[in-house]
């Protein structure tokens, strides 16, 4: 089937012959111009010489008529700021920066769609003080309340007044210098159209392939038509044009009101030729690129088997791959097939693919590195009189960047720095330390340097960084310019990136004021400028496979159209909220809204069906929130529910699903057989130092973990913690309580003393704990989660003291954080030492007059009350890991009783207390549920410690003996599963 542009070229050549050179042919895009030139060339006979007509995009045509140059965005932004400053003297560049680009976009949109008079009217509309009244009248609230709550609207209206003045003056200044932004170029072209036509000697203008246009583009086309020197060629189909409310035809229906002859161009393509549509659902976004690679592989393999590869390489419009989401370009390029069956030639797909869209600078590693360096500078820790320190995560992110690990030496430096940070647990580091670790590497000296929040230093150091990277990419190069001179080498792409960055830095250096601006302002200007840069790809412009953005496909036709990201929010693109002009005001003055964007995408999508033989539409399943996809595009649903049923003989729709399952990780049970050597190693560990209740708990939960952590002592690299987690938070709380209660050891405390602790005392104790505890002294408490947790620790400590004042009439602190140990005979030749550190031992006088000696443990984690208080047998403690906490309490009670007669305890206990008859209690205070008080355990069959003390000792020792015998049993393998241990005797 003949392509649209091909048919236009043929008609124009037939009508004008050699006089075609007098035409100005205006097309929707530069890509369309490339194809049109090719089609026109094919019209000529061999050896024929023809002066080509002017073939130009609409933007290019506007520049010809307007006689304006379009400067870079940096120039426009600073010119805008100078004008804005005249009306807002208090506005600094720092305040203007976040707003500048948005204002420039709005001015561009206004000039594309409104006359100067209409634009001023719109601004004046917002200046009207009655605007507040109009908005208030539409709300069910008191009028005065609305005015009071919307006081900022006064400033809002003042801003719009100055914006009108800025708009008028800014345009005038640009026009005086014969420069402008895109919208101003169109408006100027329209305003001087008759004059420009004469100046340029324009006799005949052809507009072909237009549908979605801005207001000014449409007015320009219609005015030239009215002048009798322009003709339009439309590519439209009866399917959507004859449906008054079909999105794809709305733009053309509006055109038809002014150009009834548009009806003559209406054809019946859709549903009148065979077209196969395959709709493929994939499980996640990256898989889409993989699917396209597989499709191309099969297609090319088929061409080779049919001996049609040569024909394919000369095919003009074979396959188009359209990317509504341009971030998929990189994974798509990596998915192109490199080897094909039946041919030795490599990279056939790549050699026959052209990429029209360019590669966005903001998706490159260099942009990512620049962003990381800004983060590093903005997060520097500054203290008066001290050098600035870098946050370790920012350092790690930079050091791990691929540009810092390009060769063996660089990798060694990077790995060494990462190891030092890990081992020394640095949260903040001085730059000088980093430079010493890097052996004063020039690249590190350029990056790890304090800009002191000054933009000239930032520019200087970023330039030095580009110079350093240039040397990394090409050792003999000294500057980015020299590196960029060799753009055909192995690092050609990286060198071109460096050139772009270096050039942008130079441009900013020229236009930025000499006085310092805030770092965040400089960041906005630099990253905005880099964000708008696209890196062009080199290739054959009319290759058989074309990768392009959605709108680049305007006026082009392909046999096979592949569209990725066919999800709502991508196709069509989601509603934009970036405009500073309210939606209702846009609608009132006819400015484009997201609805116009939807119409544009609809026409572009449906026009692709005019001549396509096959369409492959890929979307991401939205049922899984982790996939990142949205709902299936409504365009796909329209094909399935409306188009295909209507033309069932011509359009076939096939739905398929491709799930790329995650690799299945088999949780195979790891088992280690105990040989004599391993048993001896376990025995050695049990005898060489005491074993704690927590180690025994670990064995009962996971023997393999016990073997690694307790016996063999394999150590993982400790992750650097910058935030207090449950473990370190517990350490903080324990340490603070110890410092606060230490002065009361050996003393009896009443309710008044418990509540006498002041907030300042608690804060000082916790702060001292942070500073003096090795695992805590690198935490910063100034902000964020750590600050909140520090406040919570203060509150919990105060609440705990309040609870203690009410629970008992008196409490005597016997010991704090003391170690207790006792030996247990396991076998005639094996004796272990059970040991534990009790948070607190105290003697309490209860409100009923009874006394008890308690061993107390503080817990900051979660717990289930029934796991402790439900009366269970000791066998269940072995069988159920959830009940393992009882082991700690049982061991503490045993150890306290074994050490009752020690000199340390006997000195503190009151002399009149008979320790042999004293009730012994062991339990927890859970800080998440302080109101539950002291939680003890209950074990069925446990001998009473007051009347059956020796029986209790035997009971407890038999329990631990059984566990240790299981540890050294030859019949029991070591695995990750909890061991099955049967007690010989249950008491």
Automatic annotation (TrEMBL):
Protein name listed in UniProt: PD-(D/E)XK nuclease superfamily protein
Short name of one Pfam family? PDDEXK_1
Q: Which residue ranges does the record assign to the PD-(D/E)XK endonuclease-like domain? A: 691-927
Superkingdom assignment: Bacteria
SUPFAM superfamilies, A to Z:
P-loop containing nucleoside triphosphate hydrolases
InterPro entries attached here? P-loop_NTPase, PDDEXK-like_dom_sf, PDDEXK_AddAB-type
């Amino acid at each position: 089937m003949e392509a649209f542009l091909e048919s236009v070229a043929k008609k124009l050549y037939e009508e004008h012959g050699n006089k075609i050179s007098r035409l100005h042919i205006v097309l929707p895009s530069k890509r369309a111009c490339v194809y049109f030139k090719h089609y026109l060339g094919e019209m000529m006979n061999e050896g024929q010489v023809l002066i080509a007509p002017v073939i130009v995009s609409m933007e290019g045509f506007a520049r010809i008529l307007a006689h304006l140059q379009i400067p870079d965005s940096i120039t426009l932004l600073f010119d805008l700021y100078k004008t804005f400053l005249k009306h807002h003297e208090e506005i600094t560049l720092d305040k203007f920066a976040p707003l500048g680009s948005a204002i420039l976009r709005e001015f561009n949109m206004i000039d594309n769609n409104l006359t100067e008079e209409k634009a001023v009217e719109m601004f004046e509309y917002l200046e009207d003080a009655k605007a507040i009244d109009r908005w208030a009248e539409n709300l069910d609230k008191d009028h005065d309340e609305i005015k009071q709550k919307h006081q900022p609207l006064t400033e809002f209206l003042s801003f719009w007044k100055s914006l009108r003045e800025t708009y008028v003056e800014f345009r005038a200044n640009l026009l005086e210098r014969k420069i402008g932004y895109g919208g101003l170029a169109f408006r100027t072209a329209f305003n001087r159209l008759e004059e420009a036509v004469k100046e340029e000697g324009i006799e005949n203008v052809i507009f072909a392939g237009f549908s979605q246009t801005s207001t000014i583009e449409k007015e320009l086309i219609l005015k030239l038509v009215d002048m009798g020197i322009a003709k339009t060629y439309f590519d439209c189909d009866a399917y959507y044009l004859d449906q008054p409310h079909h999105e794809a035809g709305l733009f053309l229906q509006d055109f038809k009101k002014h150009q009834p002859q548009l009806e003559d161009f209406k054809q019946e393509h859709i549903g009148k030729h065979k077209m196969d549509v395959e709709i493929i659902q994939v499980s996640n976004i990256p898989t889409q690129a993989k699917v396209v690679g597989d499709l191309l592989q099969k297609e090319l393999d088929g061409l080779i088997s049919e001996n049609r590869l040569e024909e394919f390489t000369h095919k003009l419009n074979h396959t188009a791959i359209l990317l509504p989401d341009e971030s998929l370009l990189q994974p798509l390029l990596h998915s192109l097939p490199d080897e094909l069956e039946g041919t030795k030639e490599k990279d056939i797909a790549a050699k026959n693919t052209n990429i029209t869209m360019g590669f966005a600078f903001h998706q490159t590693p260099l942009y990512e590195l620049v962003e990381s360096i800004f983060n590093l500078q903005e997060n520097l820790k500054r203290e008066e009189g001290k050098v600035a320190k870098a946050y370790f995560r920012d350092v790690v992110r930079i050091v791990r960047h691929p540009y810092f690990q390009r060769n063996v030496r660089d990798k060694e430096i990077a790995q060494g720095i990462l190891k030092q940070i890990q081992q020394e647990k640095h949260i903040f580091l001085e730059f000088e330390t980093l430079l010493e670790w890097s052996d004063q590497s020039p690249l590190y000296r350029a990056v790890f340097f304090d800009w002191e929040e000054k933009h000239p230093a930032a520019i200087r150091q970023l330039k030095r960084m580009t110079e350093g990277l240039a040397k990394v990419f090409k050792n003999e190069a000294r500057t980015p310019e020299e590196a960029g001179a060799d753009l055909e080498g192995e690092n050609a792409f990286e060198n071109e990136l460096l050139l772009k960055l270096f050039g942008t830095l130079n441009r900013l250096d020229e236009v930025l004021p000499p006085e310092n601006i805030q770092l965040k302002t400089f960041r906005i200007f630099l990253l905005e400028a880099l964000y708008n840069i696209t890196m062009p790809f080199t290739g054959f412009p009319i290759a058989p496979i074309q990768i392009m953005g959605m709108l680049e496909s305007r006026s082009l036709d392909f046999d096979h159209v592949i569209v990725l990201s066919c999800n709502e929010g991508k196709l069509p693109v989601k509603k934009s909220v970036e405009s500073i002009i309210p939606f209702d005001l846009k609608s009132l003055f006819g400015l484009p809204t997201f609805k116009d964007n939807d119409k544009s995408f609809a026409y572009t999508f449906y026009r692709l069906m005019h001549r396509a033989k096959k369409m492959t539409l890929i979307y991401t399943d939205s049922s899984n929130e982790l996939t990142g996809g949205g709902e299936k595009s409504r365009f796909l649903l329209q094909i399935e529910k409306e188009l295909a049923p209507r033309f069932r003989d011509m359009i076939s729709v096939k739905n398929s699903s491709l799930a790329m399952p995650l690799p299945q990780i088999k949780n195979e049970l790891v088992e280690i057989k105990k040989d004599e050597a391993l048993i001896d190693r376990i025995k050695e560990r049990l005898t060489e130092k005491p074993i704690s209740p927590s180690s025994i708990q670990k064995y009962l939960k996971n023997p393999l973990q016990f073997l690694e952590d307790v016996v063999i002592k394999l150590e993982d690299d400790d992750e650097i913690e910058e935030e207090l987690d449950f473990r370190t938070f517990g350490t903080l709380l324990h340490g603070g309580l110890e410092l606060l209660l230490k002065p009361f050891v050996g003393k009896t405390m009443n309710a008044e003393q418990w509540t006498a602790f002041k907030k300042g005392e608690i804060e000082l104790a916790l702060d001292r704990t942070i500073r003096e505890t090795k695992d805590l002294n690198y935490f910063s408490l100034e902000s964020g989660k750590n600050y909140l947790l520090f406040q919570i620790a203060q509150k919990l400590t105060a609440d705990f003291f309040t609870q203690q004042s009410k629970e008992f009439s008196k409490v005597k602190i016997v010991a704090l954080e003391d170690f207790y140990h006792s030996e247990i005979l396991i076998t005639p030749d094996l004796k272990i030492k059970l040991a534990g550190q009790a948070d607190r031992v105290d003697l309490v006088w209860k409100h009923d007059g009874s006394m008890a000696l308690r061993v107390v443990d503080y817990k900051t984690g979660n717990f289930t009350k029934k796991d402790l208080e439900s009366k269970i047998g000791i066998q269940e403690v072995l069988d159920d890991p959830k009940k393992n906490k009882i082991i700690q309490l049982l061991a503490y009670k045993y150890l306290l009783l074994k050490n009752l007669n020690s000199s340390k305890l006997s000195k503190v206990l009151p002399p009149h207390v008979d320790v042999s008859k004293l009730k012994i209690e062991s339990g927890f205070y859970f800080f998440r549920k302080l109101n539950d008080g002291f939680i003890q355990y209950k074990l069925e069959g446990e001998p009473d410690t007051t009347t059956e003390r020796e029986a209790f000792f035997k009971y407890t020792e038999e329990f631990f003996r059984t566990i240790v015998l299981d540890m050294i049993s030859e019949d029991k393998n070591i695995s990750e599963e909890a061991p099955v241990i049967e007690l010989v005797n249950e008491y």
